[in-house]
């Protein structure tokens, strides 16, 4: 079984993910549920899921016609990259 890690996202960030990244399966179901609930949520993701999200969101940020959307996606990527770094250093430190 692949280990899952807590990732904090708010409802708006969940909506950004659903609208701008390819997510499927259980993760899509969880993110969709949290997008409809106000506030911050802890969503458990594998390292692979976090890394994939960063790639999808970065690509969308680079191609977004709306500069505000591009900025929002880049900020979300930065936060997820911090989570990714933490996971990698935690796993490596074991």
Topology:
Elements: E1 4-10, H1 11-20, H2 25-35, E2 40-46, H3 47-63, H4 67-92
Antiparallel strand pairs: 1-2
Helix pairs in contact: 1-2, 3-4
What does this structure look like?
The protein has 94 residues and is an alpha+beta fold. The protein has one domain. The longest helix has 26 residues, at 67-92. Helix 1 packs across helix 2 (25-35) and helix 3 (47-63) runs antiparallel to helix 4 (67-92). The mean pLDDT is 92. The chain has helices at residues 11-20, 25-35, 47-63, 67-92, and strands spanning 4-10, 40-46. The two termini are 17 Å apart.
Mean pLDDT: 92
Q: How many E strands?
A: 2
Percent range for β-strand residues: 5-15%
Oligomer: single chain
Number of helices: 4
What would you say about this model in short?
The protein is an alpha+beta fold and 94 residues long. It has helices spanning 11-20, 25-35, 47-63, 67-92; strands at residues 4-10, 40-46.
